[in-house]
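Might you be able to review the protein record set out just below?
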Amino acid sequence: MKGRLDVAVALAYRQLTILVKNPSLFIPPMLFPLMNFIAFAGGLSRLRHVPGFDFHGGYTAFQFVFVLLQSAVFGGVFAGFGIARDFERGFARRLLVSAPQRGGIILGYAIAAFVRWLMIVVLLTIVALIEGMQIGGDGVDLFGLFLLAAFANQIGLLWACGIAMRFRSVQSGPLMQTPVFMALFLAPVYVPLDLLRGWTHSVARLNPLTFLLEAGRGFIEGEPTHVEAAFAVAACLLAVFGVWALRGLRAAERVGA
């Protein structure tokens, strides 16, 4: 266990050091959720007047939860680009040979992705509060909201990690992004689930990310809903994509052998 943790900490430190030395790798992922939040919460704010829109926290809080989860998932996905880049430059192959506990490799990337996302969350939350976001939930509710988002971050990382370790090229980037983008925007992004109609309602109702989104909005409103289902879905996705990432690691080991 200690060997795995040593590998994870060393790798996470390396990834974060690279991030500090190359702001160009960090600024775009930070601006992406901020621009979305400003566009959605500001430009679409009149949607709160749609009949049946009864979210009491206001449209800023309504969209904050979506952008928070979006930043979390894509924070993990963007970390997958770094994994693929490490393979292209030969570092990851050397790491596979030298690391005594290879399971620590995934853990190290996961830690780096989480810390990187935390920096985005701080800025996003400050901007939302400046914009007048209303928070109805208490400290426990907010903890639940950010815990769900943290799960989403690791889900995105594990998904992208599995892709990156199978293809070992940044050209696999679209494979990392596109399914996540579609899953996010086939959830109830602009209005509550009950206001969607037709096939969009049917798809959103079955979308696993809808459970996380609805529970997150309940947390920030102070009226938690579907909490058990949301955390159960998050745990299942973590387990499934955890296996996916481990199999990707084994695939990379076979190629490097």
